[in-house]
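Holo prediction — XIL.
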Amino acid sequence: MTYRRNFLKRAGYTTISALLTTGFLQKDKQNENHSIDAAMANSISGNTPLRQLAAAKGKRYGTAISSDILLKEKDYANLIARECSIATPNGELKWNATEPQPGKFTFESADAIADFCRKHKMELHGHTLFWHMAKPDWVPYPPTLKMIERHVKGVMGHYRNSPVLKSWDIANEIIADNENETDNATYGLRRGVKPELIRDLFLFAASVDSSKKFYLNDFGIEGATWKSDRFLKMIEYLKNKGVKIDGAGIQSHLWFSTAYAFDEKGFKSVLKRLNDLEVKPVITELDIIIDTPLPDSIKKLDQMVADSYKRYLDLCFAAKVDTVITWGISDRHTWIRHPDWIPGKTFRDNPQLHRFLRPLPFDENMKPKLARNAIAQAFRQAVP
Ligand code: XIL
């Protein structure tokens, strides 16, 4: 697998923030209403499921789901059923899972998730038809048009009549990480990928099932960056070609650290440009890491994660974002604790720091953290 090598290349794969240095997390007067203190959090958390708080504002909250964990861990399944109104398969709909051999499709694990969603009245977001990091070895990158056509027909066709699957990440992470990794200055696509290929991918998708919402999904676009600019240009290109594209998946693997600046103004401008293009922003993979220097206690860390959630979601909701999906629900299963995906050199070199990787709203025991309360409060305060 090339995951790890590629991931390392993603250094700073997130957008990311100097909240600590910029005062973003300090409780000065200006920012007061964005942060939550423990006492307030406890008093407002109540018992109301996040899906209900979201629904009260015409919004949805959900998580990435793994089918194997769903089968094995009852508390995980119960928590998701209680809290979530939408889910994304963690890996079950990726090319290596659905078409491991040319033309031989398998949907067992993805269907298990779809069944779970149906049973618990949750929507399913299809992730993803096209991603360089989750393809079987027989598929080159980019795949040929013929391979794409067969794949799209096979996978989308299977879910055409699904009562729960309503949206697809048609393409994932097609924009290069920086200008040295593209041979296309205008759109910044990963090497070898032509804009016409992406256009045709979307066109195939529309010919199979245009009743679903179509998204372009990416990371590192949560600010005014080289990457977000290319991402927006690519959306504009698709729009100009008359291609159906309904949403922009803003992954939001956020990394709040002193090393990067959180570009609040830039992120607002990204949301505005999407609005102008009539493409809906959707938060598809939210999780939050606090980078070094780390606080001296888990309690403080959890507070920082919670404040970061609150600030980010307040900004999203002010721009009318209506769907928030976190990349997992509890720290027990977060992908960033997996050895292949430990983020950044500091964490990789210091296993004793892994306990500070607490990016999700519930802890290892499925107990709500301050981050959960921050999400609840953001939904409560959102203007419908
Ligand atoms: C990750 C999964 O969580 C891991 O379990 C898997 O091994 C690799 O992929 N961006 C995406 C997701 O679009 O599909 C990734 O999911 C996380 C980064």
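READOUT: Residues 90-91, 172, 251, 285, 335 surround XIL (CB under 6 Å).
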